[in-house]
Design brief:
Length: about 160
């Protein structure tokens, strides 16, 4: 191939590469996909599911009610931090304590927490657990079409 021949086919090859790139871009939608996974609010983590078994779609808990439950649990983070301070002050935990506590909650149709229990924790303190459970039981959750089971994780760090 001579330098003159290379110059003749170079623009055609470049155009073909650009065309293939554009077809690929249009074929995949032209951009990155949006992440549809909702982030946990307020540093906590909510996992929701039905309490009991079965049920039809007519009595499903609406997403806006689940979001409201999540917001209410998130708003209690400051109160829960005081629970850690109380446990540290009473020498149940060291001054540099840090960790997570996950609670499982069953919310009744009337919006009260029927059952609350600590299901996972790397901070071992009965005082901390009891304080968290007590504050969650005080929350006035929204009225729901049926009982609803969820879990929430609080993160702690003593100063």
């Amino acid at each position: 191939m001579t330098p003159g021949n290379a110059r003749a086919w170079l623009p055609a090859a470049l155009a073909a590469v650009i065309l293939v790139g554009l077809v690929g871009l249009v074929g995949c939608g032209g951009g990155p996909r949006a992440d549809t996974t909702p982030p946990p609010a307020g540093g906590g983590e909510v996992q929701a599911g039905p309490a009991g078994q079965g049920g039809d779609a007519g009595d499903a808990v609406p997403p806006d009610k689940i979001d409201e439950i999540n917001r209410q649990l998130s708003r209690k983070r400051a109160v829960m931090s005081r629970c850690l301070a109380i446990a540290v002050d009473n020498k149940e935990l060291p001054k540099n304590a840090r960790g997570k506590v996950t609670v499982e909650i069953v919310i009744s149709p009337s919006g009260t927490a029927d059952a609350v229990k600590v299901v996972r924790a790397n901070l071992e303190s009965k005082m901390l657990d009891d304080c968290i459970i007590g504050h969650i039981k005080e929350i006035a959750f929204p009225q729901l079409p049926r009982s609803f089971e969820t879990s929430y994780t609080y993160g702690f760090e003593a100063m």
